[in-house]
Amino acid sequence: MEVDTARTRAHTRSPATGSRRGGGYERAILVGVDFTVRSRTNRVGLESARAAVRRNQPETEDALASQLAPLAASSSLPAFSGLDAEDSMEEFRELVLSAGGEVAAELIQRRPRPDPATLIGTGKVEEIAGIAASSEADLVLFDHDLSPTQLRNLDAALPCRVLDRTQLILDIFARHARTREGQLQVELAQLEYMLPRLTGKGKAMSQLGGGIGTRGPGETQLETDRRRIQRRIDQLKLDLEAVRRVRRQQRQRRESVPVPTVALVGYTNAGKSTLFNRITGAQVLESSQMFATLDPKLRAIELPSRRKVLLSDTVGFIRNLPHSLVTSFRATLEEVEQAEILLHVRDSASSYGEEQKAQVEKVLGELNALSKPRIEVLNKIDLLDAHQRGGVASRTGLVAGQEVMVSARTGEGLDGLLVAIDEALYSDPVIEADLDVPQKEGAALAAIEAGMVIHSRTYEGNLVHLSVAGPASLLGRFREYKSREHGAGNRE
User: Fold this and answer.
1) Which pLDDT tens digit goes with each residue over 346-400?
2) What number of H helices and E strands is found in the chain?
3) What is the pTM for the complete model shown?
4) Phi and psi (nearest 5°) for 178?
5) How far apart (Å, rounded) are the C-alpha atoms in residues 349 and 427?
6) Are 47 and 84 in contact (CB under 8 A)?
7) Which helix (H) or strand (E) holds 252?
8) 290 or 473: whose pLDDT is higher?
9) Ramachandran area for residue 220 (φ above 0: left; ψ -120 to 50: alpha; else beta)
10) Which domains does the chain have, with CATH numbers?
11) How far apart are CA 94 and CA 13, in angstroms?
């Protein structure tokens, strides 16, 4: 007999502003699922051990993993398998709040396998129907993807609308899409998700034809809707291809000037936009809501070597990011594909940072960007005390130039991050040289001053002797001024 257990928690809190009736908030019942069977004793033991990791105890994850291995084996769960049901529900709750919802109740359903008809079983469906009626819920949200059959059966059994995880994420994207490109990408993803889930009523919705051989049921409304949606999908793909052509032209113009691109990537709400603003001085939207940034932003920044790079802010990733979104946002994510260096921004205060890292790397693999040089940027260290910072450093095995701890909010660690980017750039390398520039060449001296680091400067007659370090492309413009006396000493 299948084990069917659940945990229910009612909520009475409301969003910070507005009300359900006046402000447009919808009351939602959140349903999480956990398809594993574990004894209560083992589950509590695993959760207690994981809590020790989250409190940043001195033990390393490897040591704890070895200690938890026998317990995990007996509970059919790896010691560090990622998000458990409670962590997953916490993240799902943030998604709902980002969508403008109000949480009326939460349930976590545990069973050994999904029910093919309803995902959670008929008994649990009846329980949710009762909770929905008593709480006046507007919709039921599942932290899991529903098949077309499951969605249809749940819609028929519950007194309110039913949405799954993918539909919720698509709705958040639609709320935050501001540019024409972003709106096209979201609409394409929504239609591709909707197409296989269309339902109709057969002959009752048919369109009758006229003339010999055309009398009868004819084409159903369902078929008409599918054809109309498919036409719209084809048009959206053409429109997005035009966007990609424009982006390629813009990129070609940028590539005519040797300015490399550095792209920010990371889990949603890891602080990418805050870090982008702190480094560039831009004023892009900063929000604690998930997926606040959908459209890429590019700004030029200067590194300690005086080299210029373009910094790109991109859309955040999330666990089980719908594949249709990755496909639809391909034009936007091309900035990631073309970047020379990726800055993987991580929330160092998150209790499931390793799981978030794995999900980001999964999406990067789909974009064929895993082989690119990456710098791990451990953000939000202002939320950690000294002991916790030491725990983060020991767990991640910080290596200079590969991982940097920063606070985008306070600016701590940003100088080290810029140095790390400088060291990781492989195009247009920094070269040291000695230059003898006539004082009358004011334009050349100004260009050297603006684009290179000057280690020393002396004057002799009408010459200025300079010891500099600068990009090879810029130094190439001043080959005629290279010191003949010290030419053999120039260093790369």
Assistant:
1) 998 887 788 888 888 888 888 888 888 999 999 999 888 877 777 766 555 444 4
2) 17, 16
3) 0.70
4) -110, -40
5) 34
6) yes
7) helix 221-255
8) 473
9) beta
10) 5-37+76-163 (3.40.50.11060), 259-424 (3.40.50.300), 430-489 (3.30.70)
11) 14
